[in-house]
Amino acid sequence: MAIGSSLGVCCLAIVLAIPGVLDAQDARVAGRQPAIPRDASGTAVVDGYPKTLTRTDPYGSAPLTRVFVARGTKTVEPPPGLRTFPRDGQVFVSPRLRELLSHRTALARLVPGEHAGLIGPAGLARPDELIAYVGVSRAQLPDGDPVEGFGDSSVPLPAVAPTTLDVLRFTLAAVVLLPLVVFLSVCARLSAADRARRLAALRLLGLSRKGTQRVNAAETVAAAGLGAILGLGEYWTANQVVSRIGLPGFTWYPADGALTLQTVVLCLLGCPALAWYVGRASAGKAAADPLAVRRGTAEKTPSKWVFLPLIAGLGGITGYCVLGVTHRAPMNTALSAWLMPSAALLAGAGLVLSLPACSRFLARRMARSARSFSFGLAMRRNEAEPGGAVRVATGLVLLVFTASLAQGVVIELDGAARSSLPVQTYQILYGELNGSQRRAIEALPDVRAHVVTLPAPLSADWERSTGPEGVVATCGQLRRAVPQVQGCVDGRLMRLWDPGQPEDVRVHAGDDVRFDHLSLKMPRQTVRYRDHQDLLVLRNGGVLVPPTVLPPDAIPRGATLVLVSAPGEKTVRAVLDGIGRIAPTADVIPSGLNIDEFQEVAIVKTLLTLGMTLGLLIGVAAYLVAAADRAVERRAQVTALTLLGARTRTLRAAQVAQVVSPLVVGLVPALVVGRMAESSYLVIGGGPVLWDRAGLPVLLAGAAGVVAVAAVGALPLVGRRIDPELIRRH
At the N or C end, where does the chain have fewer CB atoms within 10 A? Predict the structure, then answer.
């Protein structure tokens, strides 16, 4: 029991440490945010202060952060992790970025300069973070912000959004904590039959009923307390080792996962408290009727109230499934965020509580119609003692239920971060590039098309355009930017019209159209085009302006250079690398691509995988512990059946049937309820996927694998050896 409790406490400490690890990383990110000096009117004070400009670009599925720094005349403390500000032409990089720079020349062009050193852990959120501080002159940083220090905590930059973190906590609670409670309960009930006889003897010798329960509880608490101390030591060792290796998509420093006082108190008190409750409850039969223990009386029929949590949980889950079928999103999302997880947890607990009653009912029915002696023997044993077999199956049943629920969380996160766009666009402010930079960027091999958009003047409230958009492009560029173009003639002003899109601003032919300092007449001739369905490259109703019509340097600085490429990750990476190499300080906006969401999804997936691994470990451990304990308890019955002439093959078949039948009884509703819980979660998530049909074969295969493992594991529980002491006791 001490070893089992230590394993459970170690898993509990891992779950409790995850929010602390994320908070420590967020604190270091907040600690390097620049604080802008301002005067009494709130205007930024530039004179003498260093200037910084931050650019974040996607590098694969991780963000690459570059902070351009220009020194000033005033003394300011350098950013955390640096001993001094980089000079013009110097660069400080993170350890992981230095490894990449050594063998990736394209990436080296993004951080030009002489390597002056590494960024220390105080300036990094994670050991594998990609970040660089690049020193430039003040003339190269006209748009930089002045800095009087670092540590602006008013800028929230969490690695995982609060709403996503709540989802992660709920999922880990379902995936890890529910099986963990079952596992610790199984450990606390080890050798229950042997202890029941000893407690009954103490009761017959004159010990009071409460005293008998306290004796059993005290023994259980002592073992659980020792296990809790061992578990905390196991967690400390695991944190030191795994933090230095890292998990796929998520790394941390050992100090981030250090044990907190709350975790230590909860583990040292929570595990013994659960053991105390289970110890008192398991000694109730011996304390109330000690003679019944010796006679081996049958267990009481489970109460019908055990179905109440399952009914309550199914009620909430079914309601959200109905909303999904009728395409009616929940109106009160705050209520749903509390109600749906509560319903799922009630349903999971209800599956465990109702399993003995369901197993006993079905065992009685199947025993009456059984034609096989071994199967009938197994069903009669489950009917007489459903709790023992259920202890073996409970952990695996919960594992299948929580796996389905975790699958829904992964589907929603994938839907939020996956790019399903037909093309990828990149927007760069035209005024940030000089002529040679623009020509080099437009000539990048992976750029499919490029156009320049001229914004119309805004209304007085700066919220809407007062005219159509101008598009500076040739007919060839237009055809490469959108799927279909009809009636385009090079060298002419033409009106752009997409019949499938609404017009934001309707302007008649011959009306004046103004773009900053450029004035044109709305043309009569029209170009019919069809834009991409999920991503609009152009605004409908705009004006196609051939480059030859414009005089030199007529494009305003407020115009936008729009690049179009294929949506593949390698292509996007190549385009962003090319832009960064040509114009390192240009602000690039890749439409529909949020690199922070990709990183967040990678972190959450890693933590969910960790939770599922812990849940699998706990479920299998609970099965092994309960199966071994049950084999010990049934040695006397197996010995008696052997003396009566039952063959070993028959007894093993009965043992397999006795373990597998309640497991199947639990897995079927676990699959159904788990799928309903997954669908209800997807309904309140608001994503495009409500019914995950693709994940069903995986769950069915997992359930079949669980049954096969349980059947194989039950075979060695019946041996050939007959202990004379067991004959005497029986």
Answer: C
